[in-house]
Design brief:
heterodimer; A: mainly alpha; two-stranded antiparallel ribbon; globular; B: alpha/beta; D-Maltodextrin-Binding Protein, domain 2; 2 domains; 5-stranded mixed sheet; 19% strand; elongated
């Protein structure tokens, strides 16, 4: 698959001039900031900075855009870990274990874990892209609605794990999320539950709703404390402890690699992306370890899985973009805009005719992954001051930033209004012990699951035998069943704990 | 008494002067417009095709009108949120609408219960129109529209097509099937959330055929084969006959519906209240499109720079709207 003369050309393109390197660091910093501020997203950063790429050559433009992408992949973990509010849907699963770690005073380690997992996964995803760009793209095109439906259902099984103290309440919270997610236009043209409000025709804006649910849940709880981290001596930002988090990441190679692989595949599928990838990777990590009961209480492995998956989905979505010219999500759709500005059309011919250029983009991303490590640590130093800020200052600030961010997301009052409504819902849910995370998972997956279920029905003409014509769907279904039954099977045959402990240890 | 008359006379002169002055201000209205910056309202997200067109136009329109022209995005509900907002602004011509005049505007009106009608807008020009085309995946055996229709008729309810709800593609698909006497359940109709996912499904070979955007399908060129374009004449981008030529063997013709039309509009009451200012806007837009620099920008960005003018634009939009209205029941299941 690798074309060595093209690689030589690629290296010449990269090292032949300074300009490709000058845009990398600003891109990473922009990505980190937009990822870390709740309500700002990577795609928003790309829209804002897209016009700048007009003044760059195409390679520099792509390096700049992918740097923003890479920075955002870790940036969103920072508020997730420090204040339990995911900067983007990509970091929802990061909150599950990242925030409990921070509360224990292990925020340095948690951020170190997130950074190392993000950097590693980003590099790995581009390595896979280098070797398998065309096969991945062709595989992704083979996935149709039945396959996507199974992926969505797989994500939904996570709700069972997020149940909190009461199983039934967890399911109920998840169902609420799914139902809320069906508000608005269905693909079939039915309008559901909009109560005559035009703003709801597009459905509930997911990010403001998600932020509202998480925000209320956490901020109201925080009101009774002085600082996020109770012990004063634990509030320091310590390089030693960040680095120990970085090292700890590589003590769980299976979790790290599996999370990355899930991210690459899910990221490559058009219309899904990192928001689903982190949930799937988290739930798979939880299911395959010997001691799943430790997840959700500050287990480093949860942070690794989620952060590896949300960062590696970048490489996956780039595969679809470069090899097919099809954008997988918001960020790559904007990159397609950068393609258009330079009069380039993605697609099979683009890769065949521009191998050195594609390789150059990939190699620059290996460098980005290393640069992210360095810049990320500096960024952690700055962000770490959040835990030293008194809660009475922190809570109103986060609230205000979130409201502005929500306005930026929707461009009208619908964003802040949604945020406030869901703050109240989240507060009440928290009060009566319903897990808000289950509602968020339901809300994020509702459109995918509902739409694909509808299309599977339409494609099959209502005939279940249609599934038999779809081998990939059957394989996925078997995998899903095995993965659900794995804990039971493992216990039954007494192979689980020992085997899993050895391989993960 | 005499004084009173003098006073009345003076009063009458003042009134007359006031009336004249007011008339003068009114007359001067057209001459003055635009006296302050103009906002182009785009009811869709930044970065989309409509937004790119508006942002490209803004500086050149500004040059012609001598006032800054800025773009504001208010996305939501297929343009309905921003369009409603636009109509709530004063009708002084300082807020103009850049809209997807087909298919979104009619869909808002006919399907999603918008509180406006087509008559609330005065269209200036349809700058960028796209057509739809019927395409199949390149590995499918159908080489002509007849091959495909024969297969549909031989396998009732087995072949699948993809649509996005309320689009010109959906209506054209339904009109064609109806004209050919194929019942609604004669094909499996799969509904997608947008043109992007629909194109991906077509490129992946999951659908037997679909009516998709012509120019907008450039990205999946390598995966598809066009069988007919929904226009009066052949298109330069795709090698396929016009749909009514491709349907000649069946002895049917169908109305040709434009795929998407991106246009600039003011509120209808602005045009009515101040026709001279509206003409000024029209002339400025026309001159902007004649600007060589703008033309090369449009070419580089693959955006059309058509000049149809208010009358032709309104005529096309009205005829499209009538087709959509007439076949609205085709959207009902």
């Amino acid at each position: 698959m690798i074309d060595f003369p093209a690689i030589a050309d690629a290296l010449r393109m990269l090292f032949g001039s300074w300009s490709p390197w000058l845009v990398m660091v600003p891109g990473l910093v922009i990505g980190l900031i937009f990822g870390a501020v709740p309500g700002l997203t990577t795609s928003m950063a790309m829209v804002i900075f897209l016009p700048l790429t007009l003044y760059m050559d195409f390679l520099s433009a792509m390096i700049f855009m992918t740097s923003i992408f890479t920075g955002g992949g870790f940036g969103c973990a920072i508020p997730a870990i420090l204040v339990n509010i995911p900067g983007m849907p990509a970091a929802v699963a990061t909150t599950f274990d990242g925030y409990p770690m921070a509360q224990r005073g292990e925020h340095n380690e948690a951020l170190g874990l997130g950074l190392a997992a993000s950097s590693f996964a980003e590099a790995l995803s581009y390595l896979i892209l280098l070797l398998l760009v065309v096969p991945i793209a062709n595989f992704v095109l083979k996935l149709s609605s039945p396959e996507m439906l199974i992926v969505g259902l797989w994500g939904l099984t996570l709700i069972a794990a997020l149940r909190g103290r009461h199983f039934a309440r967890g399911l109920l919270a998840g169902m609420l999320g799914l139902l809320l997610g069906t508000i608005g236009f269905s693909a079939r043209g039915d309008i559901r539950g909009t109560m005559g409000i035009d703003y709801l025709l597009d459905g509930i804006p997911e990010i403001p709703a998600m932020m509202g649910l998480f925000c209320a849940a956490e901020l109201f709880k925080l009101m009774r404390t002085d600082y996020i981290v109770e012990k004063a001596e634990a509030r320091r930002v310590s390089m030693r402890r960040i680095l120990s988090g970085v090292r700890a990441t590589f003590r769980h190679p299976r979790i790290l690699v599996r999370g990355s692989l899930i991210g690459v595949i899910i990221g490559a599928v058009p219309g899904v992306g990192s928001a689903v990838a982190n949930l799937l990777a988290y739930s798979e990590a939880r299911r395959t370890v010997s001691d799943p009961e430790r997840f959700g209480k500050g287990d480093p492995r949860g942070v690794i899985a989620a952060e590896a998956a949300n960062s590696s989905s970048e490489g996956g979505s780039m595969a679809t973009l470069l090899a097919l010219g099809i954008p997988g999500g918001g960020a790559t759709a904007i990159m397609l805009g950068a393609f258009a500005m330079h009069n380039i059309t993605g697609g099979p011919r683009f890769i065949a005719e521009n191998k050195p250029l594609v390789y150059a983009i990939i190699f620059s991303n290996f460098v980005q992954s290393i640069a992210l490590m360095a810049i990320g640590i500096g960024f952690i130093y700055l962000a770490g001051s959040i835990v030293r800020t008194p809660v009475r200052v922190l809570v109103p600030s986060i609230f205000a930033i979130s409201v502005f961010g929500c306005y930026a997301i929707t461009g009208n009052i619908a964003g802040p209004a949604t945020f406030l409504v869901f703050t109240i819902i989240g507060w009440q849910m928290q009060r009566y012990d319903y897990p808000v995370a289950a509602t968020v998972v339901g809300l994020l997956l509702a459109q995918l699951v509902e739409g694909e279920a509808l299309r599977t029905y339409q494609l099959s003409g209502g005939d279940p035998a249609y599934l038999l014509e779809r081998p990939i769907a059957l394989v996925l279904l078997v995998l899903l069943a095995l993965s659900l039954l794995w804990p039971v099977l493992a216990r039954r045959f007494k192979i689980g704990p020992k085997l899993a402990a050895e391989s993960d240890g | 008494m005499h004084d009173t008359w003098r006073f009345m006379g003076r009063f009458a002169r003042y009134v007359a002067a006031a009336i004249l002055l007011a008339a003068g201000v009114n007359a001067g209205f057209a001459a003055d417009w635009p006296a302050r910056p103009i906002t182009l309202m785009v009811p869709f997200n930044a970065g989309g095709s409509l937004d790119r067109m508006a942002r490209g136009l803004a500086p050149y329109l500004s040059k012609e009108l001598g006032q800054p022209v800025t773009v504001v995005n208010r996305p939501g509900a297929g343009g309905q949120v921003g369009t409603t907002w636009f109509l709530q602004q004063p009708d002084d011509g300082y807020t103009l609408l850049v809209t997807a005049a087909t298919p979104y505007l009619p869909t808002n009106i006919l399907v999603t219960g918008a509180k406006y009608t087509l008559d609330d807008f005065a269209f200036v020009n349809a700058q960028w129109s796209d057509y739809t085309m019927l395409a199949v995946h390149k590995d499918k055996p159908y080489k002509t529209l007849k091959d495909l229709i024969d297969a549909v008729k031989a396998n009732p309810g087995r072949l699948s097509t993809g649509v996005t709800f309320g689009s010109a593609g959906q209506i054209s698909t339904m009109m064609m099937l109806e004209a050919l006497g194929i019942p609604a359940d004669g094909v499996r109709i799969v509904t997608y959330d947008g043109g992007g996912p629909l194109r991906t499904a077509l490129a992946g070979g999951h659908l037997d055929f679909s009516v998709v955007q012509g120019e907008g399908s450039e990205t999946i060129r390598d995966f598809i084969r066009p069988l007919a374009v929904f226009r009066e004449s052949r298109a330069k981008e795709w090698d396929a006959p016009p749909v009514n030529e491709a349907l000649k063997w069946a002895g049917v013709t169908i109305p040709v519906l434009s795929g998407s039309i991106r246009a600039l509009a003011s509120s209808a009451s602005f045009k009515k209240k101040d026709p001279q200012a509206f003409d000024k806007l029209t002339a400025a837009y026309k001159r902007a499109l004649e600007n060589k620099e703008f033309q090369s920008w449009l070419a580089a960005n693959k955006i059309d720079g058509d000049w149809l003018g208010p009358d032709k634009t309104s005529a096309i939009l009205n005829s499209n709207f009538e087709i959509l209205k007439k076949h609205r029941q085709l959207l009902k299941k």
